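Hey,
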Amino acid sequence: MADAAETIVRHFRQILIWPLQLMPLPQPAGAGAVMGRHWELMKELVAEDSPWQMRPSVFDMDPMAFQERHYREFVTFLPYVQRFLYGEGAAESGGTDGYGGSPLHTFRRHDISAVRMHYKDGSRQDFKVAHIDLYFFYDIDIVILAFEILADNVPLSRVQDTLFRFGRAFPSQWDEDETAASCLQQVKWLDAKGGVIAASDYDDKSKFLSHVGEFRAAPMAQHWDALLRPLVLHHSTELGELRYRQIEYHRMPLMAYLAFDDPFDLSDEDFYRLGMVTRPSQGGDLPYTAKVFQDFETNCCYDRFWVPERRHDSSSTRMMCDGHAFVLVGKHGHTFFSDPFTGALGQFRHQYFLLMLIAHFHKAALLIFSDRLAVAMSRLQIGDVSSARRFKRGIRVLQEVFLRFTQRYWFSEISNQVVADQMFHIARRHLGTEALFAEVRESIHSMSQYLENDDLRRQADTVVRLTVVTILGLVGTTVTGFLGMNLFDLSAAPLWLRLVYFFATFIPISALTMYSLMKSRMLSEFLDFMSDDRMGLSDKFNIIKVSWRKKRQARNKL
């Protein structure tokens, strides 16, 4: 069996899929909350010479330029997923950005041509950049960075090290030599001429420590911060309307494609390290047990096209997914695996990429809903009317957005094609989105029930108050009805005298009505025990006397 250090990956691709939370855009005073419209501001911020430019979809181009790979990608998904990914046709959309238009808005960065990675052992490796995209979503405050790199003829150990270390937003700790643990020594973005656009600063320990001490949030490494601009980190002193913050773990989810001369030469340990995205083997590593490999194959491997006993090219493709990573391994040069249009390579870059994009988008959106529910609850102050009013408005907005998310974006089935459908289910199972969805839905339902109960309580209280006022006004109504005539004949009196009588009557009656409303709660309690036929009249008057004495003593203390 070949040594991992000598095994060569003939073609390697890695795609980072990094979800980030966008902070709500500032709104004018009194305006309703607007969510998921950040791409409109992004369009305003990117000038003609900006490295970010809005990327049109294939459906915005000449229909005669539509290619077979676009068609294969489109028909992979079920109709409701097609509407999510591509929008409606012209007849349904009406040229709007609402329902019917595509809810995805993509911006692509064009100035970065390569990534130079410096490793812990002092070596370096350049990777070509295939594309760098930002995906914005209608109605949801999420942006997803998709960053694809590639290289040919790279040692397997170098590929394992790249998968393990490249997608790190910031270091989790530092080693004894003050270098960032689990991170690359340095990362550089290079332009077409080899010039450095930005470089990492993982070893600037004081920057990360002071930032966490000041903002209680970790900063992004310099190269990621520069890559995302004009987006700026929310927990920072940077100025900018498009602000983002971290949603999950600082290690970015990824996809990987590896083509070997003979994938059957890979050991169980090689597959485990690739599928679980661990660092390459080192001399002092403890050996993995057989149970570890067995659990890995049971839970993370999809072996529909992997039959090592046959050692045939048609059975040399293996798929692995643990939620964090999706890894595709196969034979280099075999059409089924290496064809960029009809083979697994083309599916990896298009169908499987969209599949993982949807899975991570689902989890990120649900985590944001959960976070905003927690924030709304933390800001609610019982007894503060304005706080309760803001809480209700915020919860109702979240209910509306969650309903649209459920109807437009949430689906448990995405394809009738067996492989795509099963890989999506494996990803969802590892990401735990089903349980998270049920938890968020239950929380929103509980919030909704609380608001409904509070509204019913307020309505009942209002009915009681109006009933008290009506009962008190019944006396005057009965008296005037019994008389059936005017007490004073003012038909011949001058206008000013009639106005004097009107206001002399209107003002005290209005004051009495307002006073009755102010004391309606106490009066309702009075009417309640006065109507209790289980008590004698003397007992009722004694209760009134004791209650009156207690209230007078309470006022005297104040």
